[in-house]
Amino acid sequence: MKQSKLRRSCLFVFLASLALVGCGETSGSVNPSSPAPSETTTVNPTETPTENPTVAPSETPTTKPTEAPTEASSSASASVSRPSVDGITDTIYSVKEAIAFANAAGEDPSDEYVVQGVVKNISNYSYGERTIADVSDESVSLYVYGVRGADGETYFDKLETIPQKGDTVYLKGALHTFNGTPEMGPQGSPAKLLHIDSTHEGFDDSAYTVSTIAAARSAAKGTKVKITGVVAKTTKTQKFSPNGLYLVDATGSIYVHGGDVAGQVAEGNTITVAGETDLFIADKEQNIAAQIGYKGAIQVSNSHLISNDKGNTEFPKDSIQYKTRKEIVETDVTKENITGEIFHTTAIIKKVPGASFVNYYINDLDQKTGTYTYTANNGKDFSWLDAYLDKVVDLYVGVTNCKSTSTGAIYRVNPITVSPIESYAREDSKVVPFVYDYYVKDQFLDVYAGNPELEVRTSHSDSLLGFSDVSISYSSNNTELASFVTGEDGKTILNINKDAAVKTATLTRKVSYKDQSQTYTKDISFVDITAGAQSVSVANNAADGDTVKIRGIVAASILNKQKSFYVTDDNGVIACLVDKTHSTVLNDFIINSGDEVVLEGIKRHKKNDKDATDKGQAYLEISKFYGVISCDNTIKNPNVITNKTFADLHDVDRTAEYSRQLYSLNVYYYTDGKNVACIYENKAAYDRKQNGEDVDYINIYKGGYPQVAFLKDFESKEVTMTFALCNWNNKTYATICPFSATDGTKTAYNTFSYK
To answer: What distances in angstroms separate CA 185 from CA 60, 193, 197, 312, one per listed residue?
Structure first.
C-alpha cells in the first residue's frame, strides 16, 4: 500500500522524537507511548481475515517506513529491564510499545519487532489469529492477524507445541494499523513464534469423573466427565478453524465441542478430555425441536485438554455399527438419538453446486436417499471429497446434529474416512431386498381417498451396482377395490374403485432376480374424505376467521414458504399456508404438483396494519390435511386475467383483492443468479434500466436463487409468464409468485418447495 509523503514525514518526526528522548534528560529511558499510543483493549479489525490456511502467500509486503527507531531501541535496551530468552538476540518489546510502533507505522507495515505478550484468546487455530495482552497490564491488548513457526513457514496448526490461553509468547513480526487499529503480522506476512513460556493456569479436573464414552453418551446433561479416546476427525468452523472433534474408544464415539481442544490435537492422537455432557440445539431451532421431540445433539461441551500422546493411532472400530444411509436417515429422533455417533456404511457421494455454495451429499446406493454434509464454509471444507464423486465408497460417517425445521428433522453428517470400492457389485442374495426396500416398498399408501392411477415399477436394473433385470409383479385379493392393469404401452397402473362394497384389500408384491424371489404384502383401505368439501371460490369469499374445507389441485409452490402451495379448481385459486401453529400438519404426507387434495383451513389476510385500506395477502391457514384423492392431474389455471398491462400490475390497486387471481403477461425475465429475480415489461425496458433510467420492474418473492431455478431456460428472455400477485411481508408494493413460464416451445412449472 502506498503512503502519502505527509504520512511518511510525520513518521520521520515521530522517530526523530524518540531518538531525542533517548539523548535527553530522562537518562535515555524510552516511552513508546509518547506521543500517546492507543491503549485500547478492543483491537480486532473490522474485516474478517481471508487468508486460506492451506495456501502460502506468494509475497511478503516490502513497503516499510523509511526510518526505523534504532536509536530509541538501543536507548531502551540500555535503560529498561527487558526479558531475556535463549536464542532471541533482538530487543524484546512489550505490547504497549508494540502498539506505539504500530501507530507510528500507520497503514504501511513497519520493520519486524519481537513482542512479548500473554495469549488472551486464539480465534483461529489454522493460521494463529489471536489477541495478546501486555504482561504488566492485561487490559492493553494487540490483535495478531496470523502466526507461523520460527521458520516463517510452518503453519500454526502444524506446530509441535501450540500455545494455550494464558501462555506467554514471543512473536516477531511487522506492526501497522488496519482501519486505525494496531495489529501485528499483517495479511501475507504472519508473525513468527520464537518462544513459549508455559504460564497458563493448570486445569483442575478433580471434580470430573473418569468415564467411558458410552457412559458419557447416556449421562444426564451437565455431568462432568473425563474421557479418553482416539481423535477420529476434527471439524471446522468458519475460516477453517477447528471447532470440535469426534472421539472414539472401545465403547463408542462422541462429539467434543471446543476450538481450544480441537486446535491442539490431530487425527490419530490419543487424548484425555474433561468436559460437561450436553444436548445442543441451535437457538432458532429450539421451538421446532420441542414440537418434533428432538432432544439435541449429544456432545461434550466446555471441554479441556488434559493429555495428548501426539501419536498416530487408528481409531477403534469394534463398537461402530454398520448402518445403511437409509437406516441412518430414517432413525426416529424421538426413540433413538444417534448424534455424535460414528457409523460404518456404503455410500455414493454427490456434489450439488449452488449459487454461492456447494453441498456434498452422502447418499445410499440408490443415489438419492441421504443427507448433506454439515459445512460452515459453503462446502469448501469438503472439497477433498471430489476424488470420490459418483463412486461406491466404504465410509465412516459421524452424525453431527439433527437440523430441526417445520418440514421435519434431518440428520446431517460429517465424513470421517472414505475408501473407494473398486468394481463394486451387489451380492446376488442382497439384490431382491435392496430393490424392495428402495424402489417397491413405499409405492403404496395405507389409506386412499380416491383413485391414484399410480404407475408401479415392474423392473429394475442398476449398472453402478452391477445387476439388471429384476422383475416385480403385483396382485390383489380384492380386485373390486384395488386392481392392477397393464396397458398396451406396457405400463402397469394401480386403480382404486371408491364404489367397491368392501373397502379393504391386501396387495402382494413379488420381487425376483435370477434364482432369488421374495413376496411382500401390504394392507390398504379406502376412506371417502370429500364429504363437505367445497370449491376454492367458497374459501376466497369466506370472511377472515372462517374455517373452510376445500377440494382442489396443487398448482404451484409458494416460494419462500415451506410446505405451502397454491390450490386451484375450475373457479379460483388460493394460497394455502402452513404456519408455526400448524407446522406439523403435513408431516405424514408427500405433496406434489398435480395432486388433488382435500384440506381444511382458516381464512386470513396478511395486512399492513399501518395502512387500513390495504386489502392484504389472502390465504388459507391450513389447520387439517385430509389427504390426496388423485395424482398427476392437469393443473387448472382458472379465470386467468390477460388484459392487464405491466403498469397495471406494477401499480396494482391494493385496496381491492389482488392476491387471489392469476395473471398472464408477456414479460422480460432477469436474474443475476444470486439475489435478484424480477420481470420487466420487455427487453427494451431492461436495457433502459441498465443505462441508468428509472424503469419499473416487479420482483419475484423468493428466498434464494434455487427457488427460481426452474426458470433457468428463460433467463434474460421475453416469455409469457403466469403468476399470482403476492405480499407476504407487508410491503407497500406487490411482488409475484410465478406458476409457469413458456417461450412457445418449452414450458417450466413451479414445483420447488414440496417436490
So the answer is: 11, 11, 20, 32
Q: Cα angle at 411 between 410 and 416, to 5 degrees? A: 150
Q: pLDDT per residue over 599-630, tens digit each?
A: 999 999 998 766 777 889 999 999 999 988 88
Query: What pLDDT is attached to residue 240?
Result: 78
Residue 76 — pLDDT band, cuts 50, 70, 90? very low
Provide the β-strand partners of residue 307: 272
Report d(CA 170, CA 124) in Å as an integer.
18
Residue 745: burial class (beta carbons within 10 Å; 0-12, 13-18, 19+)? exposed
What is the domain range of residue 656? 646-749
Asked whether residue 402 is assigned to any structural domain, the reply reads: yes
| 708 shares a domain with 621 | no
Cβ contact 340:319 at 8 Å? no
Instruction: Give CA torsion, residues 345, 239, 150, 161, to 10 deg.
Output: -50
- Would you say how long the chain is, in residues? 755
Which one-letter DSSP state was computed for residue 668?
E
| Diameter over CA atoms, the chain | 114
Residue 391 phi/psi, 5° resolution?
-125, 155
Is 70 exceeded by the pLDDT of residue 5?
no
Cα separation, 114 vs 192, in Å, equals 9
Distance CA 488, CA 626 (A): 34
Taking a C-beta distance cutoff of 8 angstroms, is the pair 316, 335 a contact? no
| CA terminus-to-terminus distance, the chain | 52
As a 3-state breakdown, the chain gives helix, strand, coil percent values, each rounded to 5, of 15, 40, 45
- Measure the CA angle with vertex 610, ends 607 and 612; round to 5°: 65
Q: What is the DSSP string of 732-752?
A: SS-EEEEEEEE-SS-EEE--T
Beta-bridge partners for 124? 129
For the chain, what is the domain count? 5
Closest residue by Cα to residue 539 from 528, 530, 529, 552: 552
Q: What are the grid coordinates assigned to 588, written together?
A: 405424514
What is the 3 state secondary structure string of 127-162?
CCEEEEECCCCCCCEEEECCEECCCCCCEHHHCCCC
- Asked if 565 and 558 count as a contact pair (C-beta separation under 8 A), the reply is yes
Same domain, 333 and 389: yes
Question: For 440, which DSSP code?
Answer: I
Query: Which residues, including other chains, have CB under 8 Å from residue 316's CB and lie 6 or more apart?
Result: 229, 230, 248, 249, 250
Q: Classify residue 594 as exposed, middle or buried by CB count within 10 Å of its CB (0-12, 13-18, 19+).
A: middle
Rounded Cα distance between 127 and 142, Å, is 16
Domain annotation covers residue 528: no
Peptide bond into 35 cis (omega under 30): yes
Cell of 463: 449398472
Cα→Cα distances 316→251, 292, 329, Å = 9, 33, 24
Could you give the residue ranges of the DSSP H alpha helices within 504-560? 536-541
Ordered DSSP codes for 592-616: -TT-EEEEEEEEEEE--TT-TT---
Domain boundary residue, one of 149, 166, 197: 197
Task: Map residue 483 onto helix, strand or coil.
Answer: strand
What's the confidence (pLDDT) of residue 428?
95
